[in-house]
């Protein structure tokens, strides 16, 4: 209704966009329905229930011990500070990254006690680019640990 009060060019744009959006939403709904059917036929639980099975490690069990932290701490860059927002503690963030890697959970399921999942994800990606992640895993003796999912879904 509001589009009708616009100028002719703007109205044409808004109505065209509205048609495109409704078509896109229809395709997305069909894809979601088909995906649920494929998971059901494969005997897999629906999305959301799978996460209950993957988080077998409690947050407190995945925390770094003092001995592990002593091995890894020299490998990490110095914490920035002074101006702006205080930095996220390396130990806390590393614990969250390890929790995701050890449980096979998604980044969004990371417990809040490790901080924001976005921060842990960005730091993990940075450490991979710097080659630091493999050194951390070697230092912890967990070279065979599968890394967290490389890309977080939108």
Task: Specify the helix fraction band.
Answer: 55-70%
Total separate domains = 2
What is the arithmetic mean of pLDDT?
Answer: 79
Main beta sheet: strand number and arrangement? none
Unreliable segments of 5+ consecutive residues: 50-55
Q: Give the CA-CA distance, first to last residue.
A: 31 Å
What portion of the residues fall into strands of 2 or more residues?
under 5%
> What is the molecular shape?
elongated
- Give the beta-strand count: 0
Question: Could you state the order of secondary-structure elements as H and E?
Answer: HHHHHHH
**Helix/strand-derived class?**
mainly alpha
Radius of gyration: 22 Å
Number of H- or I-type helical stretches? 7
Short description:
By secondary structure, the chain is an all-alpha fold. The protein has helices at 8-41, 50-54, 59-62, 66-72, 90-103, 117-130, 132-140.
Task: Please give a structural write-up.
This protein is an all-alpha fold and 154 residues long. It has two domains: 2-41; 54-140, no CATH class. 56% of the residues lie in helices and 0% in strands. It has seven helices and no strands. The longest helix is centred in the N-terminal third of the chain and has 34 residues, at 8-41. The two termini are 31 Å apart. Residues 50-55 have low confidence and may be disordered.
Topology record:
Blueprint (H helix, E strand, L loop, with lengths): L7 H34 L8 H5 L4 H4 L3 H7 L17 H14 L13 H14 L1 H9 L14
Helix pairs in contact: 5-6
């Amino acid at each position: 209704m509001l589009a009708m009060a616009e100028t002719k060019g703007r109205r044409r744009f808004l109505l065209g966009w509205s048609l495109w959006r409704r078509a896109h939403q229809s395709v997305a709904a069909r894809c979601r329905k088909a995906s649920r059917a494929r998971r059901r036929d494969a005997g897999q639980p629906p999305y959301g229930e799978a996460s209950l099975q993957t988080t077998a490690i409690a947050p407190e069990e995945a925390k770094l011990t003092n001995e592990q932290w002593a091995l890894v701490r020299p490998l990490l860059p110095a914490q920035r500070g002074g101006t702006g927002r205080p930095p996220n503690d390396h130990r806390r963030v590393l614990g969250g990254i390890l929790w995701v890697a050890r449980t096979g959970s998604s980044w969004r399921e990371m417990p809040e006690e490790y901080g924001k999942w976005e921060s842990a994800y960005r730091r993990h990606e940075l450490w991979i680019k710097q080659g630091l992640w493999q050194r951390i895993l070697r230092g912890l003796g967990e070279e065979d640990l599968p890394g967290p999912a490389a890309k977080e879904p939108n």
